[in-house]
Every structure is written in structure tokens, then in C-alpha cells.
Amino acid sequence: MESARYLTGQFLLAMPGIGDPRFDHAAIAICAHDENGAIGIGLGAVIPGLGLHTLLGQFAIDPGNAPDAPVHLGGPVEPRRGFVVHSTDWGGQDTIDVAGRWALSGTIDVLRAIAAGSGPSRFVVALGYAGWDGGQLDAELARPGWFNTPGALDLLYDTPAEERWARGFADAGVDTRLLTNGAGTA
Length: 186
Prior knowledge:
186 residues; alpha+beta; VC0467-like; ten-stranded mixed beta sheet; 5 helices; globular
């Protein structure tokens, strides 16, 4: 199956020593990956001092009963653009299905629905994204630096941001204490 080599619906975890401080301890939910490129939402760090209520206020949306959930640092590309990774029980005008595992929305309608109590039952909010041109992520995966793991929903929704990286490795049977910063030589 040709799509088997693509990582849509999986997590990408940065290996120690990845060489790019923007991705140190990154846990990225891959939302689209094909021959044209990839997009992922970083869920391994939150933006200090920014919660969902503040974000909703910037759009003049009353938070209603929405929890004041943390806003994640989604990635270095378009850091002011918002995204919501969410359960598949809600869909809006731009919602994309992510391998039947979760959904991704990037327009204000999902924020309005969350505030009104009619949005997705589970969600994670982020600003920015990680993006790769066609073949770029595939080339990076051929070198040490990234580790992919199935996109467990409890890792997505039930694990605090600061624990996602270690938990992703643990779920895959990898003890992060044994990971090194380099490949070494023989």
C-alpha cells in the first residue's frame, strides 16, 4: 500500500540532538503527509501565559463554558495562525479528517463552537505549525533525528504537553534515558 510510508495520523518525536532548537523534545501530530509535503502541529510545549480564554478574547468571543485550556506552540511556521486538533465528532467549513483518528480545523468557526459548547468533545489548540515541502520530511526521516509512533488518542488529549515527548517514546517501548545525542561511530 503506497500510503503506508506516510505518517498522517501519527506522532513525530524529536530525537535528542536533532540539531534544531525549535524542535528540542518536539511531539508533533502529523495531520497531512503525502508526496506534496507534510504539515504537523506541535503539541510538546505550551505558550506561557496564553490560555484559550485570552485567545477567544482576541476574537471578541465570549468563552462561555469553554475551559481555559493551554495554547500550544504548534510550530515555527505562521506562529500567529491558529489550529485546533480535535475529535471527529465535529466538523466545520475547513475541517480535514486525519486518517480517521482526529480532525484538524484552522478557522474561527471551531473556536466559536467550542465557546458555545457545540464544538468537538475533545480538542487541543495551537498557534503555528511545522511544515515540510514535498520529499523534505521523507529525507529527514532517512537520517537520525525523528522517531514516529502511532497517534494514540490518550497521548493527544489526556497527556500534558510537557509529558508528551517522553510518554510517546514510553508508549513505543523506548526508555528516553537510553537515548543519546549522536549516532556515534564504529
